[in-house]
Amino acid sequence: MSGAVRRVRESDVDAVVALEHELAAYQRAADRCELTAEQLHRALFGADPALFGHVVEVGGEVVGSALWFLSFSTWRGEHGIYLEHLIVRAGHRGGGLGRALLAALAAECVARGYPRLEWAVMDWNEPSIGFYRSLGGEPLGGQTVYRLAGGALAALGGGQGGGVTRPTSG
Question: Residue 145 has what pLDDT?
Answer without folding.
Answer: 80
